[in-house]
Amino acid sequence: MLRRGLEPDALEAEQSNQPFLAKLYGASVTGRVISGRRAGQKAVRVGDHKSDHGLQDTASPRRANVIGVGLHANTAIPAHDRMKLERMCRYMLRPPIAIERLKFLSDGRLLYRLKKQWRDGTTHIIFEQHELMERLAALVPAPRFNLIRYSGVLAPSASWRRNIVPKEAVAIIETAANKAANENETVKDLQPRPRRHEWAELLKRVFAVDALKCDRCGGRMKILCAVNPPDAIRKILECIGLPIRPPPIAPALIRYE
Questions:
Q1: Is pTM, for the whole model, over 0.90?
Q2: From CA 176, how far away is CA 188, in angstroms rounded?
Q3: Cα(104)–Cα(228) distance, rounded to whole angstroms?
Q4: Ramachandran angles phi, psi of 135, nearest 5°
Q5: What number of CA atoms fall less than 13 Å from residue 122's CA on the CB side?
Q6: SS3 74
Q7: pLDDT by residue, tens only, the chain of 257 residues
Q8: Nearest to residue 59, comparing CAs of 45, 47, 48, 70?
Q9: How many Cβ atoms are within 10 Å of 27's Cβ, its own excluded?
């Protein structure tokens, strides 16, 4: 870190040399605009702000909101609930906005419909086009900035870390073997699932395409080797009569309503 100049002092100096980014992040946290004719003002909210419609403040010891930064720790995932863990990961990897809830107004502004009504009654937010770009730009990670940071019991030097970090796979298999011996079960059924899915399984999940299924007989194919050099790939495609150029990419469609 010190040799590459990535110590904390260097990062703070780099951020100080980019004051616009600092203003952009601050405006995003406070919900204000930093450019244009509405500079310094907050985003335009639409909704019934006179009534909370029965929405109560669900404050709890496991929720906090300090200076615009929120922390929500009310969701718990059991150790072996892989489906719930996958749903949580999908939620964390969702895009910043839902395109189907964004539309153009007649005056050129953008109207974004919230998925859930806020406690103050807000149901929609109106942005100028550059205001929305400001909000999206604030979500882009800063250069050379570490996005994953562990604190509390997950910190590297925490004394309780060894009590919550998952054990090695060997220890899990040994426990499964002992349980199988006592309950007359097979060790294979009790072994933990792999942490990473094969590329073919990922393609099947995302695009619903089984890349290892033979089109002729319907049997399962297996990988013999991986070809990486472009020249070798081009020769193989030419030999089996497949195109060597990728299909043209159509331009993105913008829907105006």
A1: no
A2: 9
A3: 45
A4: -65, -40
A5: 13
A6: coil
A7: 445 544 444 445 455 567 788 888 888 888 888 888 888 888 888 887 655 444 445 567 778 777 666 777 888 888 888 888 888 888 888 888 888 999 999 999 999 999 888 888 889 999 999 899 988 888 887 777 777 777 788 787 888 877 776 665 445 555 665 665 565 545 444 455 556 778 888 888 888 888 888 888 889 888 888 888 889 888 988 998 888 888 887 776 655 55
A8: 70
A9: 20
Distances 105 to 17, 30, 123 between C-alpha atoms, Å: 38, 25, 16
3-class SS of residue 180? helix
Three-state secondary structure string covering 87-99: HHHHHHCCCCCCH
The residue assigned the tokens 């639409």 is 46
| 39-57 burial code (b ≥16 CB/10 A, e <16) | eeeebebebeeeeeeeeee
Kind and range of the H or E element at 27? Answer: helix 19-30
Phi, psi of 110 (to 5 degrees): -115, 135
Q: Tell me the HSE value of 257 on the side-chain side, using a 13 A CA sphere.
A: 9
| 126, two tokens | 């109106």
- Single out the residue of 101, 114, 98 nearest to residue 45, CA to CA: 114
Tokens of 33: 């605009």
End-to-end Cα, the chain, rounded Å: 50
> By three-state DSSP, how is residue 131 classified?
helix
User: How would you classify the pairing of strands 63-66 and 69-72?
Assistant: antiparallel
C-alpha–C-alpha distance, residues 61 and 71, integer Å: 11
